[in-house]
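Lab notebook, bench 4. Continuing the backlog of folding jobs that were queued last week. Each job is logged with the same field layout so the records can be merged later without manual cleanup. Today's entry covers tripeptidyl-peptidase II, a 570-residue chain. Filled in by technician R.K.

JOB TYPE: sequence-to-structure
TARGET: tripeptidyl-peptidase II
LENGTH: 570
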Amino acid sequence: MRTGFTLLAMFVAAVAGSPSFRSMLVLEQRSDVPDGFVKGAPAPATDILNLRLALKQTNISGLQSMLLDISTPGNALYGQTLTNEEIESFAAPAPETTSLVQEWLASNGITSKTISVTGDWIQFSIPVSQANTLLEAQFTVFNHPETGKQFTRTLTYSIPASLQGHIDLIHPTISFENPFGLPVVASPKVLTPPARRSTNLESRAVPASCNTAVTPSCLQALYGIPATLATQASNQLAVSGFIDQFANQVDLTNFLAQFRPDLAPSTFFLLQTLDDGENPQTPADAGVEANLDIQYTVGVASGVPITFISVGNDFQDGNLEGFLDIINFLLAMDTPPQVLTTSYGQNENTISAALAVKLCNAYVTLGAKRTSILFASGDGGVAGSQTTRCTKSFLPTFPSGCPFMTSVGGTTGITETAATFSSGGFSNVFAQPSYQTAAVEAYLSALGKTNAGKFNTSGRAFPDVSAQAENVQIVVGGETGAVAGTSCASPIFASVVSLLNDRLIAAGQPALGFLNPFLYSAVGSAALNDITTGDNPGCGTNGFPAKAGWDPVTGLGTPNFSKLLTAVGL
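JOB STATUS: finished
OUTPUT FIELD FOLLOWS
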């Protein structure tokens, strides 16, 4: 009798001591529906939602500070690389956080699993009816008439008050992806026949033909990029591939035969896949974006081992479309590639601020392992990634607004000027980092009242740098032609970084890692070609004008290899 009473008392005490999950508070909400979407009927109650929950990390601000320390020349910690264990000590959630969230889910009959290296992301699947109750939400079908696609989202959701401070966000809820698929930030234009080109790889004089047909030899002449082969096998450059964009080896061979005949015709790229990714080699499967990225890394970063990472459609991160998956994939490596270039993204206002911050923090973790992360800035000028639809304010792009990656804008012509499509501006989510404050303040002072009220003057400013982005020659399906977009610029600048890393590693020094503190330093910015003409129109304006110093069209400028080599101490 006493035993039964004791067990009952213990049970009552346990229940009384557990947190209450009944009191709810709104975690995220949005007041508007993104442009192009129309709110439809309530989502069917039996539809299954695959949700991802982001746990609060222990000390992500500490990891951000550490990344700045190890990336800033002159700092006592400059050049260091954090171990997986050190990264996890900052980025993993506290045990209490994990325990409380798991208790909440279990109390609702929900089974979950961890999907990130540091344990800060978990996933679970529940029907709409349960999600509406669990999150005090109203999941609704939103239609996109232009494409005929439908998405199930809610404009607000809540979590238990006792979990506030333990959960960053649940996704997909209030964020909307691009209905055209994961957006190609720099969608190349229709192929056109190439103009006559110069084959002189030795002269630093830039051939006149480079005004209408940009090739690797043009870039070597324009930026002083060496044609000599890299020597360090440990130096790796990775190219990310999404939305069934496949890189074709035969097209690469043909490209090299035309534009880099000094490289061995057997030169190839490596392949890694995740999320059921693949890379079929039939000519019809050759992707313009993937071929561009591979041809201008293999063809410019001479001799650097290049890996194409093909992300399939079996996403573990849900509607993040593999963006988190590829970072977790690289974080799981003991030695991830020293450079990652990506030509995909979207407008910042399509995703929640919490989600933007969470993805940005994923780049922090990879940067802590000395990987330089570069993204194309976008092709809509001040109107976003690729669109011209904007109302009162300019549209910044994501992830270019993240302070812990390097955004690459576009230029055109031998006497370089800003490409009119080069996206640039100021984030509405991320504050301006200290490493760029002086450069941005100088620009805003010179800008005066132009575009006043159309952008966030205190936001993280982008792009950081730029490179050629128009009339770029590639081979697709056996055909040669020209493309344009900042997706040309990102692999070009990434190749320059990889060649610098090759020299650094050969000298027994660490790779550059997170680039921005170096780029914005006096020695770094002086090693770039300042672009002072052109602008990036959009939203019924001329956009931002390029000016001396940093500007939100071409950033700090384009690379000068010999000066950069000196700037990194070689």
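OBSERVATION: The two ends are 83 Å apart (CA to CA).
SIGNED: R.K.
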